[in-house]
Write a structure and sequence with these properties.
binds zinc ion, 26% helix, 5-stranded parallel beta sheet, 335 residues
């Protein structure tokens, strides 16, 4: 049902011809033989010409991929037809091309690196808040929104009045939870990009004695798709070639600042110095002055790339072969 709604919204949002989908999804579920599943899943993605990053763990599946619409439809159908993944929710965006250069399907101990392996969100987690409910809750005095993402993400955009944690990485979240003690008597609503981090973050808060813990189901992306992103200030950082996406079509606002001159700018670029490659907002005039670099040091570095106007440099594809790690188990058993 919900999948149909997303499809409808994604399809009617823009009138331009966009033949591709970008999918964002996760599913906490028990996978008995993750290595074997990884191999089958890798093959499925190769057959459907998908690109992107997928993580397989004993605790579930996490992915963001791009592909032609019909291939993505087949992919979603195949994933959901497996009883273990029937509750997977796909956030669907349209695009005019692939949003990734490569395909990686990897096995890891957790689907999001958190060092909270003992926490099983399929047993206990914060109560879901749907995007529509959030819109009603967010202005209430007894509700506090907590951003569970890293600093470089919320600096580009976050919900109005949201509380943030000074973390570079999600696994540092537990060390900052004491900062939320003062909100213990309020309703805490956690949010992240697509909802996956909140499954564990909200569960962790419950474990730490917080009682009124909720999580924004489907994260910022679903809120943007379903509710127009009202009161999300700035852009949402994403982990594909788009770098940052607009989610607020109701009352948009820019909150990020140019890394060089500190004026308001949400023009995200990669520093033209290959070694630095820093991902920061740099305004158009500084881009020109600095030849696409984030600092004078980078500008004079021998590793500086030729400045490319849109500040985006394709990944080095040297030696990349999508079939390389596709069949690891067979290879092992033959030895
Ligand atoms: Zn500037
Ligand atoms: Zn730099």
């Amino acid at each position: 049902m919900r999948f149909k709604l997303f499809y409808h919204l994604a399809a009617t949002k823009k009138m331009e011809k966009k033949d591709y989908y970008i999918l964002l999804y996760y599913c906490y579920t028990k996978i008995e033989n993750p290595e074997e599943f990884r191999e089958q899943h890798h093959e499925l993605c190769l057959n459907l010409n998908l690109r992107g990053r997928i993580i397989v763990a004993d605790e579930g599946l996490n992915g963001t991929v791009s592909g032609l619409k019909e291939d993505c439809e087949k992919y979603m159908k195949t994933v959901k037809s497996d009883a273990r993944f029937s509750h997977t929710e796909f956030k669907i965006d349209e695009h005019d091309t692939h949003a990734f250069q490569k395909l990686h399907v990897r096995y890891k101990p957790e689907i999001v690196h958190s060092d909270l392996k003992n926490i099983d969100p399929s047993k206990r987690t914060g109560q879901y808040i749907e995007p529509k409910e959030l819109k009603e809750l967010m202005n209430r005095e007894d509700v506090v929104l907590v951003d569970m993402r890293s600093k470089y993400e919320y600096e580009l955009g976050k919900f109005k009045n949201a509380v943030t944690l000074d973390i570079e990485n999600f696994r540092d979240m537990p060390s900052k939870v004491h900062e939320l003690e003062k909100f213990k008597n309020k309703k805490i609503v956690t949010y992240c990009t697509g909802g996956i981090k909140c499954e564990k973050a909200s569960a962790y808060l419950l474990e730490q004695g917080f009682e009124n813990v909720y999580q924004l189901h489907g994260g910022i992306i679903k809120y943007g798709l379903e509710q127009g992103g009202e009161n999300f200030e700035g852009k949402c950082y994403v982990f594909d070639n788009r770098v940052a996406v607009e989610v607020n079509t109701v009352n948009p606002k820019i909150i990020s600042k140019c890394y060089v001159c500190n004026t308001t700018s949400d023009h995200m670029v990669n520093c033209a110095n290959t070694v630095c490659n820093r991902h920061v907002p740099i305004c158009e005039s500084c881009m020109e002055k600095m030849e696409g670099c984030c600092s004078e040091d980078c500008k004079s570095a021998p590793t500086k790339r030729e400045w490319n106007m849109d500040g985006y440099y394709p990944t080095n594809m040297n030696g990349y072969n999508p079939y390389k790690d596709a069949k690891r188990l067979n290879k092992k058993s033959k030895v």
